[in-house]
Amino acid sequence: MFTGIVQVVGAIERVEARERSVRLLVQAAPIDTASLKVGDSIAVNGCCLTAVSVAGTRFEADLSEETLARTANLDRCGPVNLELAMALGDRIGGHLVSGHVDAVGIVGALTPAGESSQVQLRAPAALATCLAYKGSLAVDGVSLTINRVEDLDNGCEVTIQLIPHTLAATTLAHLAVGQRVNLEIDPLARYAQRAIEKMAAAIGAALRRKGA
Asked: pTM value?
C-alpha cells in the first residue's frame, strides 16, 4: 500500500522492449535505495511495480501487457513520481492507495489560480459513481482532493486544485491539456460501489419475484 505522498521525482532512463513485456530502468535518487531490495514494491506514477534489480540509485521493473494497456506514459523515458511502499505504522499523509490504476484520464483544462493551478480531468463513465466532492483521487500517484464533479454524456469531469507544494514536489507541474494520466479511485469508494451494486441487484430480484 501507498499514501499518495510522492517521495521524489525520479526518471525512467531506459525502456527495453521484450517479447511480451517492457523492462524499465528508473533513476530513484535521492530516495534511499539502500532500503529497497529485489521484490519490493514501488509506485511509479501511481502504478505499483516490483523491483527486479537494484543498483546504486537505480532499479529495474517489468511491465506486463496488461499493465501497459491500463496505464499511461510508463512506456517512455521521462520524469515520474516515485513512492516506496508504506510500512505498517507509517503516517498516512494522503489516503490509502493500492497502486492498481483504475483508468486513464485526460487533462481537459488548466487554469492558474494565484500560486496554485486548477485542473479539470476527464474520467471514464465507469468511475463516475466512485468520484465525489471532497473525496480522494490519486493522479499519477499523487493524493488529491476533488473540488467538483460533473457527469457528462461520455464520462465524468473532476476539478482539482494543485497547491504550490504539489507543483514543486511532483510531475503535475508539467501537465498539459490533452495529456493522459493514471487514475486510481479511493479504495473505500470501491467497496461502497460493490455493496450498492449488490444491494440494488437484490432489491431488483425481490421486486421481480413480487411482480411475478
From this structure: 0.89
* Three-state secondary-structure class, residue 95: coil
200 within a domain of the structure (yes/no): no
**What is the spatial distance between Cα 153 and Cα 171, in angstroms, rounded to a whole number?**
30
Structural domain boundaries, residue 50: 8-84
Please list, in sequence order, all residues whose beta carbon lies within 8 angstroms of the beta carbon of residue 167, skipping any fewer than 6 positions away: 116, 117, 173
The DSSP letter of residue 36 is: -
Whole-angstrom distance, CA of residue 43 vs CA of residue 9: 11
State residue 148's pLDDT score.
Answer: 96
Q: Is 134 helix (H, G, I), strand (E, B) or coil?
A: coil
- Lookup: cell for 147: 473540488
Distance CA 5, CA 84 (A): 10
What is d(CA 123, CA 184) in angstroms, rounded to the nearest whole number?
10
Q: How many folded domains does the chain comprise?
A: 2
> Phi/psi zone of residue 142: left (φ > 0), alpha (ψ -120 to 50 degrees), beta?
beta
CATH number of the structural domain spanning residue 31? 2.40.30.20
Higher pLDDT, 179 or 129: 179
Q: How far apart are the first and last CA of the chain?
A: 47
Per the domain annotation, does 176 fall within a domain? Answer: yes
Half-sphere exposure of 124 (CA within 13 A, CB side): 13
